[in-house]
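Problem: given the chain below (98 residues), write out its structure.
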Amino acid sequence: MQQALHVAAACKLYAEDHGGTYPKDLSELVPQYLNNASSLTFRSRDGQRTLKCAYLGAGKRMASDAVLLRIEAEESGGPEVIVQGGLNGVIQKAPEDQ
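Solution.
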């Protein structure tokens, strides 16, 4: 979860530096906004699985409550992690009903 918030915050910083537009690809965040590309790989808590991540901000302008990342659930039937970033500067985990 912390890693997802960190990546979303990097997206926000990128957008602030690029006229309010998120990067087209998360790899554009490295190395200026994230130290290395390993930050873009989401792993299960036990480290055994790579979790699928959908980046939904590609090339879009910052908007309030924009969903940036959807990361698959660690367990079958468990909740996925949804991270949103808004114009107010808040980067947060979205409510699970979204």
